[in-house]
Amino acid sequence: MNKTAVRVRTIPGAMDRVARSPSVYEGMQDIVDDLAEDLRRVTPVRTGRGRASVKGRVEASGSGWVGTASWSDDHFYLGIVNVRGRSAGFADPVINRVRYV
Predict the structure, then answer these.
(1) Is 65 helix (H, G, I), strand (E, B) or coil?
(2) Quick one: which of 17, 31, 50, 88 is 20 to 30 A from 44 by CA?
(3) pTM, entire model
């Protein structure tokens, strides 16, 4: 009878290195850029400066990368417009595309 020995060895910190890898960063940046583009498309326009301020950003966190798509601090009022809008604000369709795994 043949026996096969299987040995699994975990490498401490390996998943942390994967989570912080440049490949994961690039993938996150692609997703965040798409979300920022969608948010720009649905942002109300008066002068266009608020819409132009929407940017996607990926930053390091304790557990890997965190991506955000938002308008600049100078255009905070866009968040107020979103909250005070009809039952679903203008940014809701974009926000609803985000899925947490």
Answers:
(1) strand
(2) 31
(3) 0.64
